[in-house]
What does this fold into?
Amino acid sequence: MFDYFKRKRRARVSSSPFPPQWQAVLDRLPMYARLPHTDREELRRLIQIFLSEKRFEGCGGLEITDEIRVTVAAQACVLLLRRQTDIYPTLTSILVYPESFVATSVRTGPGGIITEAAMPHAGQSWSGLYSPAGGGPIVLSWRDVRRGAACPCDGSNVVFHEFAHQLDSEDGAVNGAPMLGERSHYIAWARVLGEQFRSLHQTLAQGDPAWINPYAATNPGEFFAVLTEFFFERPRTLRARHPQVYAQLASFYRQDPAAWPTPEGCEEAAGVSGQPPADEPTRTARATASKPHAD
Ligand SMILES: [Zn+2]
It folds into this structure.
């Protein structure tokens, strides 16, 4: 019965006209221009539902505007396109700070040593697993959201990252495996991504530059979140270097971003032929090292 009313309400919300001021924000997002036209239509419907159900709260003196709400919602909903989705069912609030915010993180290091440290963050995702109310918030730095949105092909996007964590938590465990359906899909996912995760660890242990933000090596959950950023922002590079990983993500997200048009001046243009830019690993590692964490 609850589902019936929810479906009715969502149908009503998504069939109402898309506000022109929201469309103006979408038109300024480079990522939106890359999407196939049919996806743009679906994205607008998802944004309408998302914004009717999630509460935004400005922190640190930030006033929430349509630009903030639509910029976050649009990128969050790109992860939901073409899929059966309940639109982040356990997420109720999104807290937005003007810039990076300081939060305490707990890390498990080599030998299982647990450390706690306060550090600047670009984003954080709290799954319902950790919230007595059943739904944890997402916390974002607006400055980092804007940066991520302005450059759609640098492999770094805090909104994709945090919302990938939400998808990961939907089955009750944040373990790098979102809901994949059939058992055979889980087996293939674990084999392909597990192999790459171990290989990344080996690369870093040898002191070699990583092909992806080294933060991905933190744990399988972070690997999936960072990989999601890479999949949508550097799809041709991922497909050329790790076709099996690309295929797994393309199957889960039901999208083929390597087929999207590349914006002019995009860093990934050199990767179209299958040859990644020679300086890519160093540049990626350097570019991400100084950024606040996206937990
Ligand atoms: Zn993370």
